[in-house]
Amino acid sequence: MANRVALVTGAMGGLGTAICQAFVQDGYKVVAAYHPQYDNKEEWLKEMADAGFKDFVCVAGDIADFASCQAMVAEAEAAAGPIDILVNNAGITRDKMFAKMEKDQWDAVITTNLTSLFNMTKQVSAKMAERGWGRIINISSVNGVKGQAGQTNYSAAKAGVIGFTKALAQELATKGVTVNAIAPGYVATKMVTAIREDILKAIVDGIPMKRLAKPEELGAACSYLASDLAGYMTGATFNINGGLHFS
Ligand code: CAA
Question: Which domains are assigned to the chain?
Fold first, then answer.
């Protein structure tokens, strides 16, 4: 649908970029939301333009902060129009064994990866319901489904993402607004390649497909969930993990 507007958080990271590209290919107007601290906007826009992806609206804000989300979505709507599709994609890791995890590492991950869903979704969900159409896509993780040693904070937040998805899906089910989650396995992005080499090798050895996911394999799932034909799917979690875990 050519005039739909999609906002993607963490747009300029590995997964966010693939989601943005999928949405441009689908004909949406794409709003690329990014954290001002990770401002590689000009470089990203150039890379995207070189690859044939243009006409983004870029908005900066902190998804961990409610007022910042309010301002960011208002700016996005002024530039692109009402948000029809929201992808809550931005996230961080602060991996530590629980015995060594500090309170700030717990708080940062819970706030950025889970409270952010409240902060961002609150800006758009009621208006989607009023218009009678909307798509909310939340990026969870295989580690929110199965748990991962070294990630009590991340696993808790990403499991929370699935709970949020199931609850809001029920609230919006009669309003034309679907709410779904994607639980990716290990994707070839900076977040994953930052894992210590020997640990990452052991992780990949444990994946039945013996490889990381390509970001575009996740972008394709977002593309489907955002489409009209996905209108009967809500409250679901897509597990895309190379066979690492079946839930
Ligand atoms: N299960 C249980 N115990 C484990 C373990 C596991 N999987 N892995 C390590 N341990 C134990 C070790 O045996 C060792 O025990 P002893 O102290 O008794 O010998 C102990 O944990 C090592 O603890 P340290 O705190 O010293 O560990 P470290 O500094 O070497 O590394 C870590 C800790 C940073 C968490 C590291 O283990 C790690 O990076 N693990 C990978 C975590 C992971 O998968 N992160 C995913 C990031 S990507 C992502 O999150 C995207 C997504 O959605 C999938």
Answer: 5-236 (3.40.50.720)
